[in-house]
Amino acid sequence: MVNSPPSPTQTSARERRKVVAASIVGTTIEWYDFFIYAFAANLVLAKLFFEPAGPSMMQILSLITIGLSFLFRPLGAFLAGHFGDKLGRRPMLVITLLLMGIATVGIGLLPTYDTIGYAAPTLLIFLRILQGISAGGEWGGAVLMTVEHAPKGKRGFYGIFPQLGVPLGMLLASGVLALMRVVAPGEAFEQWGWRVPFLISVVLIIAGFIIRRTVDESPVFSEIKESKQQGSAPIVQVFKRHTPLVILCALLFAGNNGVGYMLTGGYVQGLASRPETEGGLGYDPVQVQLAVLTAALVWGIFTFFSGPLSDRFGRKKLMTFAWLIQAIGVIPLFQFVMGGDAFHVLLGTCLLAVGLGLTYGPAAVWFAESFPASLRYSGISISYALGGVIGGAFAPTIAQVLLQTYETTWAITVYLMFITFVGLFATTILRDRSNIPLDIEFENSGQWENWTSEKDFARV
């Protein structure tokens, strides 16, 4: 007789700690790799790879390469979602981590335009595409490993750990870049200093690979596999049965992503750090990087607290409040950044980070509770990837074009407020399914579509 897989409540505390560690370490490494590129694109890659395009256009082209990877996130989501729903969550976590690491180290080793001509930006774009595919597939697996292992009533808390990878990855990337600005100042940073943060990824990837290989598969997927109920074409079924849900989740994520990429996409850092002759504000680059590092810490703190708060008050109530806090941070952001020094950058980015943390943290568990077990990896991955395309893909590029066109940062502020209210709109429509059973048996019972969170809260 074959023993059934353990339910989340039967999973040992030790195994949950391993899952949390694997999730937070892996996503931090993934996002460190991703942000190192975004920061470098705003600081040095334009000059090293796109200089023949001219002073204004080379910066826009460099920013476009940040957004280009987002266009390939849906491909990563399709692939990882398909195989994650058929083969398991854990294998996809390992594969996406390795793919991101290979691409990141490759960028660190890449010759510049002066060395190999147009082959340099071509290879840079190819490696950036690989990063996009990896990022599109990684998030869904990390979220499901934590949420599907979580005990009832604590999913919001467990769901924030993969979300912490973004602020922690940004904090790590900002810290490493600030260090390299000190170690290799001025021309030395352009010549070789910018490569070191990319090459450091080798050590991080090895550590993340070892940790992720040690965790058990999600109990929900183990049950699906044991009962042989994997779908034949989960992505097709997601769009056939849940297209409106995918759109709402994507819009919700876009509201956070579009605003967040002013920091994670490196736009604020680039604007503040670049010399005035290159369209920047000319602030001390080390101080700017340290200011954003502090903002990343604030983002992480409020992301952490958003999880337990969503368990207590529900996903919808917390997120509605969080969008208003994000809007409050958006309005003065660039007024602070244009204030004349890095200290004002610190004030503006930290204020913005409060709302970003509160809107980002609960998204993981809300996505996971919105899709049934057999399609969950595909559903949350494609929603996340499409949200990234809609919100964050070209947010830094749009911001730069608006600034050059209207010659005022208020144009960027209006754009960011619009994106914020897109997220608020999706939140008001998306159903709150807090504490809905996540197992395949509940999906097969026919009760999934009729569930409301109030029923469950009444029994807790």
Automatic annotation (TrEMBL):
Species this chain originates from: Leucobacter coleopterorum
InterPro entries: MFS, MFS_dom, MFS_sugar_transport-like, MFS_trans_sf, Sugar_transporter_CS
UniProt key word Cell membrane: yes
UniProt keyword Repeat, yes or no: no
Keyword terms: Cell membrane, Membrane, Transmembrane, Transmembrane helix, Transport
Transmembrane segments: 20-40, 60-80, 92-113, 125-145, 157-180, 192-211, 245-268, 288-306, 318-337, 343-368, 380-403, 409-430
Annotated protein name in UniProt: MHS family MFS transporter
Major facilitator superfamily (MFS) profile domain location: 19-435
Membrane topology of this protein: Multi-pass membrane protein
Localisation per UniProt entry: Cell membrane
Top-rank lineage group of the source organism: Bacteria
